[in-house]
Amino acid sequence: MISVACEPANPPVVESLLRSLPAWFSIEDAIVEYVTAAARLRAYVARDGEDTPLGVLLVERHFPGAAEVFLMAVDHAHHRPVLAARWSVLPRTTSPPTASACCR
């Protein structure tokens, strides 16, 4: 079963996922920038039943009513239907206090 949860910043998860996707993330400076940003941003992390990270969504809050997806990276084996459905329902399945806490 795949679960998606808001977690504190987790640069190692972001780095591991980005380095596993060289077709999309192959510029070293960009990887370093994303990993650095992951230290300050909260993340939604998708994990399988064995707690293995399958994807990450970094959210940057600009204003109380506005947030931006800073980064989305999904393990290649889980692209398209598997995690896409989970990301698309996240706002409806995450209670407002959890969602706002993640965006702070």
Question: What does this molecule look like?
Answer:
- It is globular and about 35 Å long.
- Helix content is 39%, strand content 30%.
- It has a single domain, classed as Aminopeptidase, CATH 3.40.630.
- It is built from four helices and four strands.
- It has 104 residues and is α+β, with helices and mostly antiparallel strands.
- About 9% of the residues have low confidence.
Name the CATH superfamily assignment. Gcn5-related N-acetyltransferase (GNAT)
pLDDT below 50 for ≥5 consecutive residues: which ranges? 91-99
Total beta-strand segments: 4
Rg from C-alpha positions? 13 Å
* Annotated CATH topology: Aminopeptidase
Share of helix among residues?
Answer: 25-40%
Measured distance between first and last alpha carbons: 28 Å
Tally of domains? 1
> Can you tell me the CATH class?
Alpha Beta
Overview in brief:
The protein has 104 residues and is of the alpha+beta class. Helix content is 39%, strand content 30%. It has one domain: Gcn5-related N-acetyltransferase (GNAT) (Aminopeptidase).
List key phrases describing it:
single chain; 104 residues; alpha+beta; Aminopeptidase; four-stranded antiparallel beta sheet; globular
How would you summarize the topology of this molecule?
Layout: E1 3-7, H1 11-19, H2 28-38, E2 42-47, E3 53-63, E4 66-74, H3 81-93, H4 96-103
Antiparallel strand pairs: 1-2, 2-3, 3-4
